[in-house]
Amino acid sequence: MTDKIKLFDKKGLRTDIPDIKSGMKVRVWQKIKEGGKERLQAFEGIVIAVKHGRGKSAAFTVRKISSGVGVERIFPLHAPTIDKIEILSQAKVRRVKLYYLRGKIDKRSKMKQVEFAEVAASEVGKNEN
Asked: Which tops the pLDDT comparison, 117 or 105?
């Protein structure tokens, strides 16, 4: 019985999704249907939360500042409407949930950036061990 449940849970999971962490600056390309046409729209911002692991119910929250107003979107990780996720940079963070950024404005919300090549190299090193 549990094998059927595990098989059902794995059926809808996507394998082309990168490992997303808090503090990453990402660009999420989402498919949007308008009338009879379909187009791609990008949403670029900082990941402030990743919830529910990597399973079927996994989601991540992206925050950006648009015209001086903070905008947040919650994306289901395995949604069929997500075309691709590009990781642009990684910031050095000490927390998993970055909700404190909601109260920060401009310079006070800046985080120390880590070179993305260093992050990728450290991930490769972890996978080899």
From this structure: 105
